[in-house]
Specification:
- With about 190 residues, this protein is mainly alpha-helical.
- It has one domain.
- It has six helices and two strands, in the order H-H-H-H-E-E-H-H.
- The chain has helices spanning about 1-30, 35-55, 70-95, 100-125, 150-165, 175-180; strands at about 140, 145.
- Strand 1 (about 140) and strand 2 form a beta hairpin.
- Helix 1 (about 1-30) runs parallel beside helix 5 and helix 2 (about 35-55) packs parallel to helix 4 (about 100-125).
- The chain is globular, with a radius of gyration of 19 Å.
- The model has no long low-confidence stretch (mean pLDDT about 85).
Length: about 190
């Protein structure tokens, strides 16, 4: 019983870690707590849902409830979500950053969060949606611990992204200057 709780905690922790990494990166780069970050995650999920609807009925990969088409939908959702974040930055936060008053940025991000949340409800409704109608079958990986292929995929993807994160930083001062990263923070 305890082993199942640990496995469930690892899966949930991996899911939350993906959002936490993004929030931490946003805070370290922009120097304010962006309350709209959770809504960007939500938009990304719904963008992936829209992409997946074009591939309905596509084949699955082994024990997973999705296949290669869904991975393409996720890649497209990443691009659309980044575009949404950049658009909101251009329309709202870039102008407010010039004032350099952190409280203004936080209040604006809270307002943006409420606006984005209501756009999601307006466009997609408030009922849960599903990427797939396939049934995920849990397999026993050790006695008393059952996980699905999708859960294993999430944990492995999170681990891979966490390991890749250090390689995504600016490698030199010129690149940092062009990217508007503080030069003192470049290793």
């Amino acid at each position: 019983m305890i082993g199942q709780y640990v496995a469930d905690g690892i899966v949930l922790g991996a899911t939350l870690a993906l959002g936490a990494i993004g929030l931490t990166l946003t805070y370290n780069i922009l120097r304010f707590a962006n309350f709209a970050h959770g809504e960007f995650l939500t938009f990304g999920a719904y963008f992936a849902l829209v992409g997946a609807s074009f591939f309905a009925g596509s084949r699955t990969l082994g024990p997973l409830t999705f296949g290669p088409a869904f991975l393409v939908a996720i890649a497209i959702a990443v691009v659309w979500t980044a575009a949404l974040a950049l658009l909101l930055d251009w329309l709202l936060w870039r102008r407010l950053r010039k004032n350099q008053v952190a409280v203004t940025l936080v209040i604006a991000s809270f307002g943006a969060s409420l606006m984005l949340r209501n756009v999601v409800v307006f466009v997609w409704g408030s009922q849960p949606e599903y990427y797939s109608r396939h049934i995920a079958i849990a397999s026993e990986i050790v006695p008393g611990v059952r996980v699905t292929g999708d859960e294993i995929f999430v944990v492995l993807l999170t681990a891979a992204l966490m390991l890749a994160l250090p390689f995504l930083r600016a490698q030199n001062r010129h690149t940092a200057a062009v990217s508007q990263v503080e030069r003192e923070r470049v290793a």
